[in-house]
Design a protein that fits this description.
831 residues; alpha+beta; eleven-stranded mixed sheet; six-stranded antiparallel sheet; 14 helices; 19% helix; globular
């Protein structure tokens, strides 16, 4: 088939029409090296144009012709898309909080504040929705990637029919980049074996600087530039990712501006702040401590925030707050002096992390201003990807990894051992849920809870100085993170593609809120009228101002018991009219049974439409669910050379199993030390190493206890076979399929032997049931990031002996037919 094309010359601008496609704008002389062209965007990448030159037998008789470079439509803005982590509506000063956030204040003062922006209640799902414009289940992210299961709405795989905003803008001529947290690469595809198609660079972001996974130690992060692991903190005491990331983003922007100043940029800036661990610098901790923001406790804090919100107009004057949940969280006047001291420290470190993160964001915004590009830069700054996290539990914790292993109520006297180093590299800290409830003011509940606004209501500010003239305005229209992509496409003049790489694209599911930029539409009716919410069985449906919500059955820290077996039907319903009840305080379900039934049907229809089914209320159980990682189905792993950086999701798992680790080494004549094998780090993991010439196996039980097996004699020069064998006493993770945790975290017996001779045997009463420190890696021959036992060594602790072969044999318990029958009967009895 021959393509027809037509070149149209108007006012020095050439337009090119190919076939039946709409007119495409060409700038410059068509065919010249300097010509550029915007495309209709329906097909990505854009099809090649037919050669427009002349070809004869000789070059001197011919005319060359160059394909125009693709550029965005004229006037398309730069885009700075910012989102912080685990931060509720009442955290920033912009929305009434007591923590100073001048960068967010600046965006709001130059533009608009939105009082009804919504997330999904959890990290990965919100981020998938944000970059695809589709609901989180549509994008495969019904839960975080570390909890993925084998259903379309939950497999943590963004389908090829859902091109990200990065890919769309890149193919339309933008420079695209991603800085910070990438929680949308499947945990089972995060190793250096790839595949890399679901890393940022494979999803349309040409440059990536950040970490892969749910959280990261900000002092020693598991950090990547594109797909290569980097260690910029080595030899730099006090280095912190929040600063390092802003530095790299500013450097990137300046490079792009110098190389090609007329090329618009799309920069996706998503720091790990303020997800646990809360790791601000001492400078910011000192600043916040001097302000004494939290000395009066969480209830007084809540009252101050609420008063500020009414003063600022970001909640209605007639809004109410629900009573303090005394049955869930201890009132401040019932806490002991020691508890008060610890809790205030926790909040100050969190607040310092908020202020520090916002300050670094402000530096990036200022860099755009310094380049003279802020007037045509659309800045979207969303405070939080969900409500404030309560995963520290009622008491907080010095080690978040302990929470993910079911240890979420560490006594205060135990936690006080870390008081002086709270927030430093010696902690993986989180705060009391009492603060989390206050930081979600005026709403109730927190992160993970999709049915209540404390889990899903985010503050958002948007500026576009050359275009939004209603500076300081407030917008109350309902919006959801899926609305960001269609908004960006509308303001840039770029349509959603019909096909990408030959694959038909599913429809964008969000609704542009660009109409709210116009001052005359300040009070225009909401265009996004229906939205479902669901997270780990907890769910709700919004329609035309009404919100039908399930009653919360599980606090976020109660993640390790049996799950609701029928989360679709075994629920209690609450009904709220958000048109008159902004903060979701007046349950109208009893008085409006017909509305309840009507909205239940709407939820079910939305659930069927967007891959929400099957509903699953399990939390921790899904952390150890089987996934198609590169270790699946294998029981033996052999390594012959040093290797570092293999992430937890792609490395051999030893939890809830029997295993044998065999190291064949050759000791030098001068003796040898160093790491043979380690996985995890300071806050949870294991190490197999030689210390002072003696073999050691050590389990770090979330920094609360370390259990060590150590040889009695120094290894002589020459070849040795060192073996650690562990016999697990439990039934294994298979019991979780029956809503039963009895098979995990059980004890066992470990035996260390050298050349066939037993040198140490110990019983472990309990093992870690769920995870090691997940931002650390599986390393052979040395130890990256943090070590499992600071008292024995400091990383990298390279192995000075010669490694011949390292073999891991893993024997996972298999449930017998009798076991299955018993567990099934027990599950039915509980139901």
């Amino acid at each position: 088939m021959k393509l027809r094309y037509l070149v149209i010359v108007t006012a020095g601008v050439l337009s090119l029409q190919v076939g039946s496609a709409s007119a495409q704008q060409v700038n410059g002389t068509l065919g010249s090296p300097s010509a550029t062209m915007s495309i209709d965007g329906k097909q990505l990448p854009a099809p090649d144009l037919p050669f427009g030159g002349v070809i004869k037998d000789g070059a001197l008789q011919s005319a060359p012709w160059w394909e125009p470079r693709v550029v965005p439509p004229r006037g398309a803005p730069n885009i700075l898309l910012i989102m912080t982590d685990d931060s509720g509506y009442g955290v920033p000063s912009t929305f009434g909080g007591v923590i100073p956030t001048p960068a967010l204040d600046r965006v709001a003062a130059d533009g608009l504040r939105y009082t009804q922006m919504h997330s999904t209640a959890l990290c990965s799902p919100t981020r998938a929705a944000l970059i695809t414009g589709r609901n989180h289940h549509s994008a495969g992210f019904g839960v975080i990637s570390e909890q993925s299961t084998g259903y379309p709405g939950y497999n943590s795989i963004i389908g090829k029919d859902k091109a990200t905003i990065g890919r769309i803008l890149k193919d339309n001529g933008y420079a695209t980049s991603w800085f910070g947290k990438d929680h949308n690469t499947p945990a089972f595809a995060a190793s250096q074996a790839g595949p890399f198609d679901l890393w940022p660079t494979g999803m349309g972001f040409e440059y990536f600087y950040g970490f892969v996974g749910g959280d990261a130690n900000q002092w020693q992060p598991n950090l990547f530039r594109n797909t290569t692991q980097i260690y910029p903190f080595e030899g730099k005491p006090g280095w912190n990712l929040i600063t390092g990331m802003a530095d790299d983003a500013i450097d990137y922007l300046n490079r792009m501006n110098q190389i090609q100043p007329d090329k618009p940029f799309f920069l996706h800036y998503v720091p790990g702040g303020v997800h646990a661990p809360h790791h601000p610098t001492k400078e910011w901790v000192d600043k916040i401590h001097a302000m004494h923001l939290f000395d009066d406790g969480w209830e007084k804090l809540r009252e101050r925030i609420f008063a500020n919100q009414k003063r600022l107009g970001v909640v209605p004057q007639d809004a109410q707050m629900a009573p303090w949940p005394s049955d869930l969280l201890k009132p401040w006047n019932q806490t002991t002096d020691e508890e008060k001291k610890l809790f205030i420290k926790q909040a100050e470190v969190f607040a310092a992390y908020v202020a520090y993160t916002d300050d670094s964001i402000g530096r990036v915004i200022q860099a755009v201003d310094d380049m003279g590009k802020l007037d045509n830069t659309l800045v979207i700054y969303i405070n939080g990807d969900n409500g404030t996290s309560a995963e520290g539990g009622p008491l907080g914790t010095p080690n978040e990894v302990a929470f993910f292993n079911g240890l979420n109520k560490l006594p205060v006297d135990v936690q006080m051992k870390w008081y002086d180093v709270w927030g430093t590299e010696m902690t993986y800290n989180h705060m009391s849920a009492g603060w989390s409830w206050a930081f979600d003011t005026p709403f109730s509940w927190f992160k993970q809870i999709a049915s209540h606004l404390g889990g899903v209501r985010q503050g958002m500010a948007i500026s576009w100085p050359g275009h939004i003239t209603d500076k300081g305005g407030i917008r109350n229209q309902f919006a959801h993170v899926i609305d960001v992509v269609p908004t960006i496409l509308e303001v840039s003049g770029i349509p959603a593609p019909e096909t990408v790489d030959g694959i038909n694209q599913s429809p964008i599911e969000g609704t542009s809120f660009a109409y709210t930029f116009d001052a005359k539409n300040a009070d225009a009716p909401t265009r996004h009228t229906t939205q479902y919410f669901e997270m780990m069985g907890d769910h709700a449906i919004y329609k035309d101002g009404w919100l039908l919500s399930t009653k919360v059955k599980r606090a976020p820290w109660d993640a390790f018991g049996p799950a609701n077996p029928d989360p679709l039907n075994n629920v209690e319903w609450e009904l709220y009219d958000l048109n008159t009840d902004y903060s979701q305080t007046k349950d109208l379900a009893a008085a409006n049974p017909q509305k309840v039934e009507e909205l239940k049907k709407v939820f079910y229809a939305e659930a069927q439409k967007y891959n929400v089914l099957p509903l699953d209320a399990s939390v921790a159980a899904r952390i150890v669910a089987p996934r198609p990682n590169i270790t699946a189905g294998r029981t033996e792993f052999v390594y012959t050379t040093p290797m570092v950086g293999l992430p937890q999701g792609d490395s051999p798992g030893l939890l809830n199993a029997s295993y044998t680790v065999t190291a064949e080494i050759e000791m030098p004549a001068t003796g040898g030390d160093g790491m043979i094998l380690t996985s995890g780090g300071r806050f949870g993991g294991y190490g197999f190493y030689i210390l002072n010439g003696k073999p050691v196996w050590l389990w770090n039980l979330v920094d609360l206890k370390r259990q060590k097996w150590e040889g009695t004699d120094v290894l002589s020069p020459g070849k040795h076979t060192v073996v650690f064998d562990f016999k697990y006493d439990g039934l294994g993770a298979g019991t979780l399929a029956f809503n039963n945790f009895d098979g995990v975290g059980k004890g066992g017996t470990g035996t260390l032997s050298v050349d066939g001779k037993v040198v140490a045997t110990q019983v472990m009463e309990h093992t870690l049931p769920m995870i090691l420190q997940w931002d650390e890696s599986f390393d052979i021959g040395s130890d990256t990031l943090t070590g499992v036992n600071d008292a024995d060594y400091q990383p990298p602790f390279p192995l000075t002996a010669k490694l011949g072969k390292l073999t891991l044999n893993v024997n996972r318990p298999q449930l017998s037919d009798a076991d299955k029958k018993r567990l099934e009967e027990a599950m039915l009895t509980k139901d």
